[in-house]
Design the sequence.
């Protein structure tokens, strides 16, 4: 049994049915097919406006292509100290963005602090070629601590960024989990709050392999299309990605799956909060739970063959372990996590 990652589970039944449908017969290549057309229509309806959507294989590709689209000579993208963009993508943004640099801003709970962002931007003196120039702010929702930005906070950070001419990107690898927690609409959490582009994640939610880079400014479509091709992310058989996206958007399927995962994570958090050998780092707002475990608790999970990943953070605001020797772990629920799985975790810690 695993609470390691929502990347570990397979695709939902409607997604598999959609893939089988896309596999029947033949269709035009490079997105000129009915499946891609349907997915594009659904994405525009999802965000309540026309969008420029690019189907890619991975979240790293979506994030890197997004910020590289906004890059200029000497460009710098800002993100949180623990953001995927800086910690988990091996410099891909700099590769795609022709030398784009990454600078980090800290803040509690994995959220960028507004005053810290303002101060960091002020430290870049306009016209000082030695420092580079900020071109983009990247936020993550759900963030790397399992917490969410609400629309008001996104709007406040976006306003600070835009006063200096920065574009705003949202890493939405678990965006549906954020929607489920906040109850906000996709539009409220993105373009209405000042977001210019989102890496909209489907793989963690129930797809086999599907991520979409969405721009809200249609004028960016042409440049983004060339960047997608140069990055080897243009699928010849795009219908197989688009079919997954359509299946997850139709009937709010992705949101239902994310809501279930969030509910299971809440139950996991309740168990860990009530256990003497564990302590929550903070209350989860998504399908990720971060908790400190004693060495004994970690051994109990291993003995029960329950996988939970040890975790590390760089943020100066991260909570400290309650006791010496306790280590931070991340437990992730997925749409396939069942009440029986949660009960097995409870039993393992009680033994």
Sequence:
């Amino acid at each position: 049994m695993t609470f390691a990652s929502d990347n570990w589970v397979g695709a939902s039944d409607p997604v598999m049915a959609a893939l089988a449908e896309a596999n029947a017969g033949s269709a035009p290549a490079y997105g000129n097919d009915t499946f891609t057309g349907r997915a594009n229509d659904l994405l525009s309806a999802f965000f309540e406006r026309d969008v420029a959507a690019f189907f890619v294989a991975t979240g790293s590709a979506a994030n890197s292509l997004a910020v590289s689209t906004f890059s200029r000579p000497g460009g710098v993208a800002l993100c949180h100290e623990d953001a995927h963009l800086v910690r988990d993508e091996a410099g891909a943004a700099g590769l795609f963005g022709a030398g784009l640099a990454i600078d980090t801003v800290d803040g509690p709970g994995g959220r960028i602090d507004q005053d810290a962002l303002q101060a960091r931007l002020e430290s870049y003196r306009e016209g000082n070629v030695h420092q580079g120039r900020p071109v983009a702010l990247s936020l993550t929702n759900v963030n790397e601590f399992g917490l969410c930005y609400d629309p008001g906070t996104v709007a406040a950070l976006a306003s600070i960024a835009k006063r200096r001419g920065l574009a705003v990107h949202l890493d939405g690898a678990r965006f549906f989990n954020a929607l489920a927690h906040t109850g906000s609409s996709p539009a409220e959490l993105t373009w209405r709050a000042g977001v210019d582009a989102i890496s909209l994640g489907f793989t963690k939610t129930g797809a086999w392999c599907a991520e979409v880079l969405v721009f809200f400014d249609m004028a960016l479509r042409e440049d983004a299309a060339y960047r997608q091709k140069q990055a080897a992310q243009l699928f010849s058989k795009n219908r197989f990605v688009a079919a997954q996206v359509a299946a997850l958007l139709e009937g709010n399927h992705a949101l239902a799956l994310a809501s279930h995962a969030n509910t299971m994570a809440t139950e996991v958090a309740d168990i860990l909060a009530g256990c003497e050998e564990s302590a929550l780092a903070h209350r989860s707002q998504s399908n990720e739970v971060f908790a400190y475990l004693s060495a004994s608790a970690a051994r109990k999970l291993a003995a029960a063959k329950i996988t939970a990943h040890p975790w590390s953070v760089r943020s100066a605001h991260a909570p400290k372990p309650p006791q010496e020797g306790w280590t931070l772990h991340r437990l992730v629920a997925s749409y396939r996590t069942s009440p029986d799985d949660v009960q097995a975790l409870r039993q393992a810690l009680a033994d």
